[in-house]
Amino acid sequence: MRIRAFAAVLAATAALPFAAQATDLEVTHWWTSGGEAAAVKELATAFDATGNKWIDGAIAGSGSTARPIMISRITGGDPMGATQFNHGRQAEELVQSGLMRDLSDVAEKGKWKDVIKPSSLLDSCTFEGKIYCAPVNIHSWQWLWLSNSAFEKIGVPVPKDWNEFVAAGPKLREAGLQPLALGGQAFQAAGLFDVLLISIGGRELYEKVYQDKDEETAAGPDMAKIFAAADEARKLAKGSNVQDWNQATNLVLSGKAGGQIMGDWAQGEFQQAGQVAGKDYTCLPGLGLNQVLTTGGDAIYFPLLEDEEKSKAQEVLAETIVDPKVQIAFNLKKGSVPVRGDVDLGAANDCMKKGIEIIARGDVAISTDQLVSADSQKQKEDLMSEFFAKESMTPQQAQERFAEIIGSAD
């Protein structure tokens, strides 16, 4: 697959437009794990091949750490050339304030509306009919990653779904293994909870809560079952003692933990470690219960700049991001699915192929980043972080607070 990726970069280099005036362009992002850094290198190499220069502005930590820094720079008059945000409403106020670049001409030239699938990705970039970002990938949260060696060690078959995984938890603990790996970053607990919601409760319940913002449903008996499952997950995750998501992933790929609920970006870490899907690890979309994936992911936004050369370089980077060969090279390393529906993914691993198949048949839902505001997301993250860290908080108490958040969400 390395050979294919290398060939893809070479082909992309030949296909991409060269800039008339080369210039440096700082790109800020939070892609700092091993797999993420390998993916970023593909973007940087392709952009550099246009005659411009990618200046890497990686910010360590999660998006929750990076976004306030990015927003502060843009609103404070020190904008970067381009910056990462998730698909959705995270850059909404920046766009409304006129601080982001309109990419409509670039999108029309590249026929983005025809090739970017699903259309919700580009919809999230659109404000008052104008397009303000270049979608990079499709990420889905709804995955349970399992260590085959951990289950071999305890003499239990690799679970086929979440229920079997929960049942195996005590044996994993008895063998000195961490049942469920979970880091201390707030977004991890919130993401895990949302996966339980849609995978156990189903898409209809998920949409009633996050799309309709139905407070009564959020406080009701169906959601009580999700909070009971979250309580089980909290017990299984006790003792993880790691902070970053990729540290939790490392517990799984090293066989020290039975599993992790994490988005498909985790498979970039397995790939970097040389592990093979189906042999060294197992992936269960929808926790093996309800194979519905959200189509979230990442997009690159371009702050308004006064420098004409850098503005031209922004256009070149936007074109580069959506180029079909660059899409393949980047997403094979990232573990995500390309935003284009017209690319060849013959080199995809088994887990990626599962995700592509689910998305292709339409078993998808809109991500929470696209459905609720950044402020409401932050409130949910804070609640779930507290719930997973504080055993004295009961599921009932957590549900009451959650329903209040949903009731006031925008």
Could you give a short description of this structure?
With about 400 residues, the chain is α/β, with parallel strands linked by helices. The chain has helices at about 1-15, 35-50, 65-75, 90-95, 105-110, 110-115, 120-125, 150-155, 160-175, 185-200, 205-210, 215-220, 220-235, 245-255, 265-270, 310-320, 325-335, 350-360, 370, 375-390, 395-405, and strands at about 25-30, 55-60, 80-85, 125, 130, 135, 145, 180, 255-260, 280-285, 295, 300, 365. It folds into two domains: about 1-140 and about 295-350, Periplasmic binding protein-like II (D-Maltodextrin-Binding Protein, domain 2); about 145-295 and about 370-405, Periplasmic binding protein-like II (D-Maltodextrin-Binding Protein, domain 2, 3-Layer(aba) Sandwich), CATH 3.40.190.10.
Helical segment count? 21
- Could you say what the CATH topology of the largest domain is called? D-Maltodextrin-Binding Protein, domain 2
**Main beta sheet, described?**
5 strands, mixed
CATH class of the largest domain: Alpha Beta
Radius of gyration: 21 Å
CATH superfamily assignment of the largest domain? Periplasmic binding protein-like II
Q: What percentage of the residues does DSSP assign to strands (E)?
A: 5-15%
Give the CA-CA distance, first to last residue: 43 Å
Secondary structure: number of strands: 13
Helix content: 40-55%
CATH architecture of the largest domain, by name, is: 3-Layer(aba) Sandwich
Helix and strand content put the structural class at alpha/beta
Biggest sheet: strands side by side, in what order? 2-1-3-12-6
* Count of individual domains: 2
Rounded mean pLDDT score:
93
Overall spatial form: globular
